[in-house]
């Protein structure tokens, strides 16, 4: 339960406050994850990011720079946002949540489903941390500690990329979220959420690196995807069901993505 709310005026001050309140503090921007189950925080000190001016969306040398506190609905509405990221942002069903949640929060929060992360993997997105460390999103997700993100960079917003989110109902929990991209050299990224064992209850998005290097199609690709993933049975479905639908989704998405790449 949050008992103290601190509002630093700079990133340096924010980091100092986090150091002073180590172990009992949490970053606070939109608050959509901190105030709701199952991600509700047990920290007592909230360090606000509101005054740090981390919400801009700008182009620099052909790359898209997105501030970590940019709200998800703003991504959907902004003309510079890549179509694939707009699409992934729309997987968050509630507009109320989209108006509150931030891109940095969606990456950093340890939650049961990571609806935007597969698209960020596929878009080759990178994060800049408060200490100026730069990591790709996959490295950040897999790190032991998820430090403060100040910016997300998409190197090539024009890359061919599409995604898909399977749910039981419009507002239901995600069964599988997938994203695929193909760059100008034909290199693929295949990213999925919902197909691996959860770690302490939160999602672990993955890339199918071995399949990215192969030229499989149709039933062969469906079978390869099914064998490459390790889903668990839960309220969203059984293991066999998730293996099957993941294979179909990836096969269909890849075919569509390849066609889009040819048409450009």
Which CATH architecture of the domain at 160-263 would you pick? 2-Layer Sandwich
SSE ordering? EHEEEEHHHHHEEHEEEEEHHH
CATH class of the domain at 160-263: Alpha Beta
Using the CA coordinates, give the radius of gyration. 18 Å
Supply the CATH superfamily name of the domain at 160-263. CO dehydrogenase flavoprotein, C-terminal domain
CATH topology of the domain at 160-263: Enolase-like, domain 1
**Level of helix content?**
25-40%
Unreliable stretches covering 5 or more consecutive residues: none
Count of helical regions: 10
Largest beta sheet: what is the strand line-up? 4-5-8-6-7
Strand composition percent? 15-25%
The first-to-last residue Cα distance is 51 Å
Task: Provide the structure class.
Answer: alpha+beta
Mean pLDDT: 93
Question: What is the general shape?
Answer: globular
Major sheet: 5 strands, antiparallel
Task: Report a brief summary of the structure.
The chain has helices at about 10-20, 70-75, 85-90, 95-100, 105-110, 115-120, 135-140, 210, 220-230, 240-264, and strands at about 5, 25-30, 45-50, 55-60, 65, 125-130, 135, 150-155, 160-165, 175-180, 190-195, 205.
Describe the structure.
Helix content is 33%, strand content 22%. It is α+β, with helices and mostly antiparallel strands. Among the domains are: 50 residues, no CATH class; 104 residues, Enolase-like, domain 1, CATH 3.30.390. It has a 5-stranded antiparallel sheet with strand order 4-5-8-6-7. It has a 4-stranded antiparallel sheet with strand order 9-10-11-12, with helices on both faces. A 3-stranded parallel sheet has the order 1-3-2, covered by helices on one side. A hairpin with a 2-residue loop joins strand 4 and strand 5. The longest helix is centred in the C-terminal third of the chain and has 25 residues. It is globular, with a radius of gyration of 18 Å.
């Amino acid at each position: 339960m949050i008992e103290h709310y601190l509002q630093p005026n700079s990133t340096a001050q924010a980091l100092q406050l986090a150091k002073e309140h180590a172990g009992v503090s949490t970053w606070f921007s939109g608050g959509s994850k901190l105030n709701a189950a199952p991600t509700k925080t047990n920290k007592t000190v909230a360090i606000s990011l509101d005054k740090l001016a981390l919400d801009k969306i700008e182009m620099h040398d052909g790359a898209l720079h997105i501030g970590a506190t940019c709200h998800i609905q703003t991504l959907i509405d902004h003309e510079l946002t890549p179509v694939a990221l707009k699409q992934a942002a729309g997987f968050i069903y509630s507009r109320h949540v989209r108006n509150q949640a931030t891109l940095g929060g969606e990456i950093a929060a340890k939650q049961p489903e990571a609806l935007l992360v597969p698209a960020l993997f596929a878009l080759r997105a990178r994060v800049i941390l408060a200490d100026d460390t730069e990591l790709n999103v996959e490295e950040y997700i897999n790190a032991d500690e998820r430090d403060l993100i100040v910016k997300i960079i998409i190197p090539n917003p024009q890359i061919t990329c599409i995604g898909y989110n399977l749910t039981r109902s419009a507002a239901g929990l995600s069964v599988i979220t997938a994203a695929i991209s193909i760059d100008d050299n034909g290199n693929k990224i295949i990213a999925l959420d919902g197909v691996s064992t959860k770690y302490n209850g939160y999602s672990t998005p993955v890339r199918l690196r071995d399949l990215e290097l192969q030229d499989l199609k149709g039933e062969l690709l469906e079978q390869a995807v099914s064998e490459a993933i390790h889903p668990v049975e839960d309220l969203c479905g059984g293991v066999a069901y998730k293996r099957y639908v993941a294979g179909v989704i990836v096969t269909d998405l890849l075919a569509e993505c390849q066609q889009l790449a040819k048409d450009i």
